[in-house]
Amino acid sequence: MTIQATEYAELTNDELEDLFDEETEEERAARAATEVVLDEFTQATVDEIVDKMLVVVDELSGHPLYRYQRPFSARIIESVIINDGATLTALFSRQSGKSETVANTIAAIMIMFPVLARVYPNLLGGFAEGVWVGAFAPVDEQADTLFGRIVSRLTSERAIELMNDPDIMDGVKAKGRTLTLNSGSLVRRQTCHPRATIEGRTYHLILIDECQGADDRMVDKSITPMGASTNATHIYTGTPTYTKNVFYRTIQQNKRDQTKRGARQDHFEADYRAAAKENPKYHIHCEKQKLKMGVDSDEFKLSYRLVWLLEAGMFTTSERLDELGDRSMQTVKAWYKSPVVVGIDPARKQDSTIVTVVWVDWDNPDEFGFFEHRVLNWLDLGGTTTWEAQYHRIVEFLSAYHVLSVGVDSGGVGDAVAERLKILMPHVEVVELGSQRPDQSTRWKHLQALMERGKVSWPAHAKTKKLRTYRRFIQEMSDLQLVYTGPYMLAEAPNEAGAHDDYCDSLAMACILTIDHQMPEAEQSSSPFHGRR
């Protein structure tokens, strides 16, 4: 759904400025060409239809949607109404109701939208002759699972009672691989197996269940074009697996898009914990599976914890990022009590200039000399086009902190940035950090060591999580991949649209500034091999 102003009523002006930072001209042009922007009246009408449709979904199924299912169902309905051609992804744990949510929602849409087309011709006039749905899965048996749920819902006593309403007067017309209603709505079962021959059909809604097993080429070449003429809504559901695929990549793209200003939520996720809170029986089931499989087993991670066990090494995991976030901490706008370190990753091409301020517990190193590091704040200068403007924004931003040293990547324009900052901030040590493989490898290994020891954290308060800077930081850290080149360990963003590693680089550069201060405390003890004189 759209972002509501009430969600951010408690945010400060600075936080709002961070949340709705300016986009580049290219981003604005692309968004203007594809984004569906509704006026206030139309959005209110859409919201009203969605709310009423959710009531129908609950009545049709006989039980209300769980809290984690409701936003997903609402977004499906909204996407079809406004015809934004969204590709929605749902990563739910096994048997938590992802297919049930889709089936109940689709059944309600197939029955109600042809009727509502007469009431709202401008919004829903395209469904006057029915809603056409394609239900796909990697193999025919899996496709039959989702298709069977939709058929079961449409042929239930509740559905028949609803369709017999004088204002609706609909009913099931035909069954088989295609279930058709009198209104013209239909749902067809099909497979997306790479060896299957898929006939050219046209759909308003394209569903791919167990999408983690779908063939990428089949999805892109054969299935997606079936919704071209209707700007169809695509819905991908599934669970994690061992390899990257169209499901994984779409999820990551949706997560990245959600960090942009005013973006609608297109990815929905619910692990076993979220489902267990709503369903006590599911909680008991998962506890039994923990004992049977082991909470750290591959099977439990994939099916219930939603951990992708990727063949390509990742720098960290979403679970670890969640553990290191301090939920009691908000971003710190100013800090003078102790020296902080700063990492600056200057922008290259489509990247953003990112400034990360890190507090260090200088007085309490552990037995290996590692200090505790805490991110205090981020500055994202992606919307500032000129370097001259960026210099002054950086100096103004850092004036609120007691800065000990600033690390700047010397590659590209980094040299010029470092020299200019030395002039503008003569009281601060500006360190030019090398961009060669040995230098980068040292930085990434140091950051990884800090994360493994729990010696680095960041604000993760509920208010902070609404900020675009936080969401971009978490997304980039989640995307970060390990690349081994000879003896060097490097980390970089995947080669995909919208993927960046600017926040990660900035953090690594800030943390490396403390490595020269590491000094393990030496302990003196008597040797057991030498007697006292």
From TrEMBL:
Keyword annotations from UniProtKB, A to Z: Viral release from host cell
Domain Terminase large subunit gp17-like C-terminal: 342-511
The protein's name: Terminase large subunit gp17-like C-terminal domain-containing protein
